[in-house]
Amino acid sequence: MKSAIMFLFTIVIGLSIFTVSKADINDNLVLALSFDTGNTIVDLSGQKNKITINGNPKWVDGHFGKALYFDGKSAVIAPYIPLKDKSFTVQLWVNPDMVGEQEIVFSQHDSSAANLSLHLRIYNTGIVRFGFYSNDLDSPANTIKKGEWHNLTFIFNSSEKLRKIYVDGNKVASDISVSAYLGAKGETKIGAWERPDKPEFYQSFNGIIDEVRVWLRPLKDEEILEGMNTKMAVEPVDKLVTTWANIKK
Q: Are 163 and 175 in contact (CB under 8 A)?
């Protein structure tokens, strides 16, 4: 009898630890787009950001469930997320067509001046850039390939000014930035870059984007892997104890 009670106690404790560890990754999650919520896009972070679509991106099969295909003339738009002087992480899956020389996957734009325009982009040479404007970090060439799924994770630690790029869970570039990102306004755009001094859809993305997430903290190495290997549930974080659904490849 005592052995049975101890066994059950161990199971309960184990499940409790599992639940907490799974929930921890939601700490400071401020944007989460899975593109699995039908013909509209819902922010699953619990922050209730209003999401709009510019152009006509198409729902297609994604890395997990459904995703959006961007045709170079479309964007998904969220409100300004206060990244100024803060630590943050942006993570997303991309499958690029690499039509243009350089294409934006995620951005905010305050002004065309140093450290005032966040632009996360890819090049047709396979380079991935983590840019603050006139203060950028690039991966080596051939880091990503046309027509293949890649997980991109961009991390900035404000206390250390440490900026890092991970591709498919592996760190491919890092530096000590001369400044934090300082943009204090500008919509958050997926697949495009808001530049009043440039034509609409300037350097916009061609290809598929899936599972876009933003945290106001730097993810740990194990969380990067957890994020890239899981998908968001279709209910907002504030309605679930655990929002991550394990996906077995």
A: yes
- Per-residue model confidence as pLDDT tens digits over 19-70: 334 448 889 999 999 999 878 899 999 999 999 999 999 999 999 999 999 9
| Burial per residue of 158-187, b for 16 or more beta-carbon CB atoms within 10 angstroms, e otherwise | beeeebbbbbbeeebbeeebeebbbbeebb
User: Quick check: 209 and 59 in contact, CB under 8 A?
Assistant: no
Q: Which of 84, 50, 41 is nearest to 212 (CA)?
A: 41
Residues in the chain: 249
The pTM (predicted TM-score) of the whole model is 0.86
The answer to whether position 141 is within a domain reads: yes
Total domains present in the chain:
1
| 11 in a structural domain | no
Task: Look up tokens 């469930």; give the residue.
Answer: 65
Quick: pLDDT tens for 131-142: 999 999 999 999
Q: What is the CATH number of the domain that holds 45?
A: 2.60.120.200
Enumerate residues 6+ apart whose C-beta is below 8 A from 130: 120, 136, 137, 138, 154, 156, 163, 164, 165, 173
**Any idea what the Cα angle at residue 51 is, between residues 97 and 186, rounded to 5°?**
85
| CA contacts within 13 A on the Cβ side of 148 | 12
H helix count then E strand count, the chain: 2, 17
DSSP 56: -
- Is residue 91, in this structure, part of any structural domain at all? yes
Residue 245 burial class via C-beta count within 10 angstroms: exposed 0-12, middle 13-18, buried 19 and up:
middle
Rounded Cα gap, residues 7 and 29, in angstroms = 35
